[in-house]
C-alpha cells in the first residue's frame, strides 16, 4: 500500500497552487492525501522565502515534526528548497527530500527513491516539457474559488526581492490551456477564479493560440477578454506589476462585468530615490498616472498595494513621500512590510541603516494613515448593495456567513450555512476596520 502524504503550505497563492498541483500528481501516482501531519507517513512543507521570518518558521516547524514524528519522511518544497538546496540537509537531519519550485510534478519519483533505500533526494531542476498544469478539483483549496496560474517566475529583479532566484524566469502558459481550464472550472461549478502569477500583466505566451478571437493592446488584456468570454461568473487577477500596467486592462474591465472591480498594484515606495534603489523600473509619477487611469474608470475599481518601509537609505523625507503617495492613491487596502534583508538579493549588500525601532515607527505611522483612509472608503459602502460569494461560516459568529465582494472586501452577514457557494446581494449597514457587515437581500 502507498504512503499517506500531508502537505503544509506557507506563503503566497502560487504556493497554494503548487501544493494543489503536487497533490494532484501524488494522488494520480497512488498516494493518499491526508489532512494532518500526525496521520501521515510523508510530510511535505511547501515553503516561502520572501522574508527571513517566513524562512525561519519552516525550520521551527521541522523541529516540531522531528520531535513528534517517529518515522515520517520529511520533504521541503517551494522557495526555501530552491534557494537553500543541499544546505537544508545540513541544517536539519530530519529532512530527506528537497524539492525545488519547478520539481512539483516529480515528487512521486523522489519519494520512491527514498523508499528504495536512498538516504536523500534532491531535485532543483526545471519543469519538464509538456508537464501538466492540471489540478484535480478534490485538491483545490476551495470548491468555489479556484487559483489559475498563468505565468510563473519573475524577470524584474527588484533589488529587495528573492523571487527571481527562487522561482526562475517568467514563463507564460498558453491562452488556450488557460481558457480550457477556466471553462472546465465553470462546468465543475466554481463561481470565481483568480488568475495568478508574480506579475500577471507581464503575461507573454509564445503564440497567440487561444486568443485569436479577441482583441487587446497587450497579451494580458487579450487574455482577460478571452477568459471573460468563457462566462465564468467572477474573474480576479493578482499581482499586477506597475511598469507593465497598460490602460487597456481598465478598458477590458469596463467591457466585461465578470472581470472583477479590484486591482492589486504594489508601489513599494513613494520616493523616486528609493524606487530607483529598489530597481522597480517605475517612478512615482509613472505610478500615479496608472492610478489615475484606474480611478477615472467608468466602474469604481478597488485598488490595493504593497509598501516596504525602512528600505536601506530611506530617510525621513523619503518616508514622507511614501505617506503622501498613500494619501493621494487612497488605497482600499494596503500590505505594509518592514524591510528585511534577504541574502542573495542585490539589496543585501546595501547598508541596512534604518534601525528596527525606526522601521517600526514608520510601519505604525503608515498603518495609522491607511486606517483613516480605509475608514472613509469603507464608510462609503454604507447603504450600498454588494454582490458576495459566500465562502463559509464566519470565524467570529456561528450565525454569520462570510465571503468576498467583487472588489475583494471581506463581507459578513447573518445567514444559514446552506448559502455557502452562492452569490448573494448584501446591503451594507456596518463598517469594521477590515470588513463590511450587512443584511442579505432576497
Ligand atoms: N510581484 C510582486 C511585486 O510587484 O513586487 C511582489 C510579490 S512579494 C511575494 C509580496 C510583497 O512582499 C512585495 O510586494 C513586497 O512588498 C514584500 N517584500 C518582498 N521582499 C521583501 C523584503 N526583502 N523585505 C520586506 N518586504 C518584502
Quick overview:
The chain has 442 residues and is of the alpha/beta class. It contains 13 helices and 19 strands.
Question: Which terms summarize this structure?
Answer:
13 helices, 442 residues, 6-stranded parallel β-sheet, 5-stranded mixed beta barrel, 23% strand, binds S-adenosylmethionine, single chain, alpha/beta, 33% helix, globular
If you had to describe this structure to a student in words, what would you say it looks like?
The longest helix is centred in the C-terminal third of the chain and has 24 residues, at 356-379. The chain has a six-stranded parallel β-sheet with strand order 2-1-3-4-5-6, with helices on both faces. It has a five-stranded mixed beta barrel with strand order 15-16-17-19-18. A three-stranded parallel β-sheet has the order 7-10-11, with helices on both faces. The model has no long low-confidence stretch (mean pLDDT 95). The radius of gyration is 22 Å and the shape is globular. Helix content is 33%, strand content 23%. A hairpin with a 6-residue loop joins strand 15 and strand 16. It is an alpha/beta fold. It has 13 helices and 19 strands. The chain has helices at 13-28, 52-69, 79-84, 87-91, 107-115, 163-167, 175-187, 219-228, 248-255, 272-278, 284-295, 316-329, 356-379; strands spanning 4-9, 32-33, 42-47, 73-78, 95-99, 121-123, 145-149, 151-152, 171-172, 192-196, 234-238, 262-264, 302-309, 333-338, 385-393, 400-405, 410-414, 423-431, 435-441. Bound molecules: S-adenosylmethionine. Residues 12, 50-51, 158, 160-161, 163, 198-199, 239, 241, 266, 268, 306, 308, 337, 339-340, 342 line the site of S-adenosylmethionine (SAM).
Amino acid at each position: 500500500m502507498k504512503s499517506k502524504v500531508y502537505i503544509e503550505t506557507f506563503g503566497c497563492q502560487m504556493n497554494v497552487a503548487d501544493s494543489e498541483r503536487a497533490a494532484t500528481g501524488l494522488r494520480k501516482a497512488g498516494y493518499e492525501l491526508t489532512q494532518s501531519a500526525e496521520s501521515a507517513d510523508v510530510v511535505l512543507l511547501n515553503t516561502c522565502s520572501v522574508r527571513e521570518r517566513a524562512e525561519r518558521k519552516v525550520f521551527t516547524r521541522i523541529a516540531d515534526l522531528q520531535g513528534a514524528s517517529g518515522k515520517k519522511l520529511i520533504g521541503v518544497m517551494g522557495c526555501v528548497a530552491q534557494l537553500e538546496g543541499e544546505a537544508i540537509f545540513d541544517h536539519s537531519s530530519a529532512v530527506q527530500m528537497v524539492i525545488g519550485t519547478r520539481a512539483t510534478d516529480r515528487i512521486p519519483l523522489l519519494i520512491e527513491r527514498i523508499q528504495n533505500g536512498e538516504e536523500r533526494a534532491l531535485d532543483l531542476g526545471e519543469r519538464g516539457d509538456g508537464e501538466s498544469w492540471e489540478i484535480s478539483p478534490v485538491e483545490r483549496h476551495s470548491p468555489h474559488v479556484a487559483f489559475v496560474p498563468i505565468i510563473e517566475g519573475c524577470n524584474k529583479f527588484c533589488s529587495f526581492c528573492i523571487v527571481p532566484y527562487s522561482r526562475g524566469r517568467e514563463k507564460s502558459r498558453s491562452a488556450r490551456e488557460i481558457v480550457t481550464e477556466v471553462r472546465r472550472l465553470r462546468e465543475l461549478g466554481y463561481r470565481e477564479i483568480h488568475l495568478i502569477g508574480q506579475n500577471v500583466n507581464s503575461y507573454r505566451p509564445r503564440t497567440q493560440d487561444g486568443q485569436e478571437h479577441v482583441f487587446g493592446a497587450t497579451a494580458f488584456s487579450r487574455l482577460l477578454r478571452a477568459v471573460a468570454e468563457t462566462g465564468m461568473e467572477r474573474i480576479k487577477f493578482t499581482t499586477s506589476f506597475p511598469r507593465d500596467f497598460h490602460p487597456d486592462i481598465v478598458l477590458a474591465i469596463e467591457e466585461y462585468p465578470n472581470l472583477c472591480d479590484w486591482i492589486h498594484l504594489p508601489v513599494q515606495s513613494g520616493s523616486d530615490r528609493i524606487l530607483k534603489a529598489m530597481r522597480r523600473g517605475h517612478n512615482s509619477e509613472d505610478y500615479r498616472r496608472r492610478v489615475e487611469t484606474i480611478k477615472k474608470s467608468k466602474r469604481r475599481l478597488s485598488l490595493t498595494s504593497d509598501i516596504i518601509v525602512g528600505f536601506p537609505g530611506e530617510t525621513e523625507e523619503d518616508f514622507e513621500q511614501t505617506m503622501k503617495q498613500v494619501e493621494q492613491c487612497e488605497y482600499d487596502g494596503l500590505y505594509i512590510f518592514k524591510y528585511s534583508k534577504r541574502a542573495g538579493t542585490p539589496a543585501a549588500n546595501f547598508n541596512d541603516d534604518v534601525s528596527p525601532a525606526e522601521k517600526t515607527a514608520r510601519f505604525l505611522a503608515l498603518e495609522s494613515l491607511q486606517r483613516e483612509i480605509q475608514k472613509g472608503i469603507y464608510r462609503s459602502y454604507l447603504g450600498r448593495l454588494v454582490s458576495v460569494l459566500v465562502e463559509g461560516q464566519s470565524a467570529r459568529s456561528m450565525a454569520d456567513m462570510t465571503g468576498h465582494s467583487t472588489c475583494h472586501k471581506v463581507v459578513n452577514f447573518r445567514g444559514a450555512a446552506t448559502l455557502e457557494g452562492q452569490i448573494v446581494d448584501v446591503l451594507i449597514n456596518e463598517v469594521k476596520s477590515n470588513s463590511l457587515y450587512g443584511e442579505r437581500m432576497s
